[in-house]
Amino acid sequence: MRVVIEGEVRELRTIWREGQLVKLIDQRKLPHRLEIAVMRDHRETAQAIRDMVLRGAGAIGVAAAYGMAQAALEARHLPLRDFMAYMEEAAQRIRATRPTAVNLFHAVERCLRAGGKGSVEERVQHIVEEADRIAEEDLKASKLIGEYGAQLIPDGARILTHCNAGALAFIDYGTALSPIRYA
């Protein structure tokens, strides 16, 4: 999404990963100020989900995936058995943040499956890659919803929406609001 930061227009995602760090827009501060929260480990990312620092099914799912990637990176030096125990503990911690969030559970399970085979190093790589893939799939789906949906919106249409279905609810673009953005 486009935001203005100190007079400069920038493209910014709702949530992104930089190595071990997960960064996200703290939605509790909006609309009064734009603040980027930085999560240093999977526990902080889980707490951000629990505290509703971010909202929306897609964003929560990506946060869960990134939390799993953080956990894998945290445990990368452990023996295989300890690594797997650490990952299951992290998965339980993340699942407990929002017990009804389907995207969250789906992301956690995908990351666990991705890290199910190979050496610890290979498992870490697969989990991190899967988390990044989940984020990119979220972005691509939102864009496609916008592109296809925009074709259905006539010029001059007045549109009323509800719920959290814009760019902040996903990586970017959103679902219900994506066609409006494209139109």
Overview of the molecule:
It is a single chain. This protein has 183 residues and is mainly alpha-helical. Helices cover 50% and strands 11% of the residues. The protein has one domain: translation initiation factor eif-2b, domain 1 (Four Helix Bundle (Hemerythrin (Met), subunit A), Up-down Bundle), CATH 1.20.120.420. The strands form two sheets. The chain has a three-stranded antiparallel beta sheet. A hairpin with a 2-residue loop joins strand 3 and strand 4. Helix 2 packs parallel to helix 4 and helix 3 runs antiparallel to helix 4. The chain is elongated.
Would you kindly provide a brief summary of this structure?
The protein is mainly α. It has helices spanning about 40-50, 55-75, 80-95, 100-115, 120-150, 180, and strands at about 1-5, 10, 15-20, 20-25, 35-40.
Tally of domains: 1
- Percent of residues in helices comes to 40-55%
CATH superfamily: translation initiation factor eif-2b, domain 1
> Kindly, what is the distance between the CA atoms of the first and last residues, rounded to a whole number of angstroms?
15 Å
Broad shape: elongated
- Gyration radius (Cα, Å) is 17 Å
Helix/strand/pairing category: mainly alpha
Largest sheet composition:
3 strands, antiparallel
**Range of strand content:** 5-15%
**CATH-defined fold name:** Four Helix Bundle (Hemerythrin (Met), subunit A)
Strand tally, please?
5
Please tell me the overall pLDDT.
94
Tally of DSSP helical segments: 6
Q: At CATH's second level, what is the architecture? A: Up-down Bundle
Assigned CATH class: Mainly Alpha
